[in-house]
């Protein structure tokens, strides 16, 4: 399988986009997840039954909160609410600058239409925190506000207000979010979301996927195993979505605390991928990609016999790519130095047969004439 990450079908994947945005949002900011889940439930009540216009609005809500959470993660959980409908004294404006930066990044990413992104950037969401001073007034406001004109308001407003009040008063729906009918679309969308947060991490994941696919061609894997490997490799660092930008791009050495925080990305990635039904094996590979054969890895310190072949392939491809490309804290190493490290310092940590196969691939790649030759 080769993931085509330069194009994404716009129609027919709206439900998948909403669900995946919400799945990631739940990991990044439970508070924002709660707000968005209630806002989506309100839209469905306003619409009477899900239709295209209400689902467009729900995509806007989901994307708005995701962009805000990715851009301003350190502050978003402190924000009690952002308000369009609340009274002026209750309104807490979003830090627009961060949100606009994230929205501008999103505009270069095809999974979301430009109308949805622009609307998501401009949306000031419904305040739904428990701190809202007058929740009944808010429910009435939503039920009668002109901004909802495009939604069919066939409900009597008193009945609608009571339904909205019930949604605002109840905990958000946190059932497993499915991917619709196309798990690969969910995988690609997750990769796009990672690219919004950290472009260099997303590109690293693409390169690791290509290396893993080249290794799988040598290893005699089945088609199903190759598909699993491709999905896991593309998402192996998706847990970094939840880490602060400053940590991901730090040029100097990490402190002990920073290293510990960085290490959380393996478990977080496992949790995010697990949200997509049918991708349990991929989720486990994502969660184990920093385990090492000598037990020195994380998060569990597993030994080689507990690390499956597909994970060992991703790990070797990951380490090779990390060392052979520049990072904020060091320059890229030439292949000779990289393989020297893999075969000496890291010899007990990596599967030596996979390292040998990778070396063959790299050597033959360099020997092959390029298109410009
Ligand atoms: Fe990683």
Structure described in brief:
This protein is mostly helical and 373 residues long.
Please give the structural blueprint:
Elements: H1 14-28, H2 30-47, H3 52-71, H4 73-76, H5 96-107, H6 114-122, H7 135-144, H8 157-169, H9 183-197, H10 199-219, H11 223-234, H12 245-248, H13 256-274, H14 280-288, H15 309-324, H16 335-343, H17 352-367
Helix pairs in contact: 1-2, 1-3, 1-9, 2-3, 2-8, 3-5, 3-6, 5-6, 7-8, 9-10, 10-11, 10-15, 10-17, 11-14, 11-15, 13-14, 15-16, 16-17
Bound molecules: fe (ii) ion.
Residues 236-237, 265, 289-290 line the site of fe (ii) ion (FE2).
GO molecular function: phosphoric diester hydrolase activity
Organism: Algicella marina
Protein name: HD domain-containing protein
What fraction, in percent, of the residue positions are helical? 55-70%
Stretches where pLDDT falls below 50 for ≥5 residues?
Answer: 1-9, 74-95, 125-135, 148-153
Largest pleated sheet: none
- Find the structural class using helix and strand composition: mainly alpha
Order of helices and strands: HHHHHHHHHHHHHHHHH
Integer tally of domains: 2
What fold name goes in the CATH topology slot of the largest domain? Hypothetical protein af1432
The percentage of residues in β strands lies in under 5%
Give the number of DSSP strands: 0
Average pLDDT figure: 76
In whole angstroms, the N-to-C terminal distance is: 29 Å
Global geometry: elongated
- Which ions and ligands are bound to the chains? fe (ii) ion
> What is the CATH H-level superfamily of the largest domain?
Hypothetical protein af1432
* Helical stretch tally: 17
Protein name: HD domain-containing protein
GO molecular function: phosphoric diester hydrolase activity
Domain HD-GYP: 179-373
InterPro entries: Cyclic_di-GMP/3'3'-cGAMP_PDE, HD/PDEase_dom, HD_GYP_dom
């Amino acid at each position: 399988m080769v993931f085509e990450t330069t194009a994404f079908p716009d129609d027919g994947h709206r439900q998948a986009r909403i669900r995946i945005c919400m799945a990631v949002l739940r990991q990044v900011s439970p508070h924002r997840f709660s707000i968005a889940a209630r806002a989506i439930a309100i839209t469905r009540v306003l619409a009477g039954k899900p239709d295209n216009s209400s689902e467009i609005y729900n995509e806007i809500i989901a994307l708005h909160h995701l962009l805000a959470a990715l851009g301003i993660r350190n502050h978003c959980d402190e924000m009690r609410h952002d308000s369009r409908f609340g009274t002026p004294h209750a309104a807490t404006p979003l830090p627009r600058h961060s949100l606009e930066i994230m929205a501008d990044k999103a505009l270069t990413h095809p999974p979301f239409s430009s109308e949805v992104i622009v609307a998501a950037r401009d949306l000031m969401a419904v305040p739904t925190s428990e701190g809202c001073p007058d929740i009944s007034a808010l429910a009435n406001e939503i039920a009668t506000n002109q901004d909802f004109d495009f939604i069919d308001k066939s409900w009597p407003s008193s009945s609608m207000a009571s339904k909205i009040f019930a949604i605002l008063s109840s905990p958000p729906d946190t059932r497993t979010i499915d991917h619709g009918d196309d798990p690969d679309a969910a995988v690609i969308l997750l990769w796009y979301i990672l690219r919004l947060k950290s472009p260099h991490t997303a590109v690293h994941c693409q390169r690791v996927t290509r290396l893993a696919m080249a290794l799988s061609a040598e290893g005699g894997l089945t088609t199903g195993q190759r598909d699993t490997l491709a999905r896991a490799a593309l998402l192996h660092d998706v847990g970094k979505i939840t880490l602060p930008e400053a940590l991901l791009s730090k040029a100097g050495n990490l402190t002990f605390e920073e290293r510990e925080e960085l290490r959380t990305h393996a478990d977080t990635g496992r949790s995010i991928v697990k949200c997509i039904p049918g991708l349990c094996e991929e989720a486990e590979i994502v969660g184990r990609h920093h385990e090492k054969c000598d037990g020195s890895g994380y998060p569990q310190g597993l030994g080689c016999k507990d690390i499956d072949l597909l994970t060992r392939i991703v790990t070797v491809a990951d380490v090779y790519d990390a060392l052979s490309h520049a990072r904020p804290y060091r320059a890229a190493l030439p292949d000779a130095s990289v393989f020297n490290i893999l075969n000496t310092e890291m010899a007990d940590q990596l599967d030596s047969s996979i390292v040998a196969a990778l070396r063959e691939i790299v050597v033959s790649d360099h020997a092959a004439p390029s298109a410009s030759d």
